[in-house]
Amino acid sequence: MALIDGKYITVENESPSFPVTVTEQPVEKGINLIDHVQAQARTLSLTGVIVGTDAAKTRAYIIAAKDKGTIINYVGRNQFKGLITDFSTGHDYTTADGFTFTMELREIKIATSSYVETLPPPIKAQVTKIVNSGTKQTQEKKTAKTTTKKKSNNNTSKKKEKEKEKEKVQKVKFKTGSKWAT
Questions:
Q1: Nearest CA to 100 among 47, 49, 45, 57?
Q2: What is the pLDDT of residues 48-80, one digit of tens each?
Q3: Please, are residues 26 and 34 in contact by the beta-carbon 8 Å criterion?
Q4: Mind giving me the DSSP string for the chain?
Q5: Which of 11, 38, 117, 126 could form a disulfide with 2, with the two C-beta atoms 3.0–4.6 Å apart?
Q6: What angle do CA 91, 96, 100 make, to 5 degrees?
């Protein structure tokens, strides 16, 4: 007797399989070199009989689990957790209140999300702020001569103020204790 999610089945043969994939590199003499081995999903082949008054319900449950991709727990000579990838039944005169079956179970691994609810606190760079960026040279822009002869005193005084600002040299100020401070 064996159980699939608590439902009894009679299993006559269990055939577990543990396949791997290997990569080979050809050489001039001798056998090929194998340089990498990768495990594949394990499988379990079952053959047996399902009989009794609940045989039709058990068959319907197994087919529904296979179609929906439900992860099942199998407990028999081997214990297995996975998906039903193949299920076939045989109905002949030798089994009056049930049927024979063959089933293939396949191991699966479920990936989890790497999403994190909260972000880490921000990392602050350990740099001091520059108080002033240094001396800046400005270039005079040549303005196109205007044909209008009207100029107000406001315009000429504003131009003179701008020229005075351009002539001023800005000094760089550093915080005390920095390696550039004098």
A1: 49
A2: 999 989 999 999 999 999 999 999 999 999 999
A3: no
A4: -EEETTEEEEEEEEEEE--EEEEEE--SSSSPEEEEEEE---EEEEEEEEESTTHHHHHHHHHHHHHHT--EEEESSSEEEEEEEEEEEE--TT-SSEEEEEEEEEE---------SSPPPPPPP--PPPS--------PPPPPPPS-----HHHHHHHHHHHHHHHPPPPP---TTSTT--
A5: 11
A6: 40
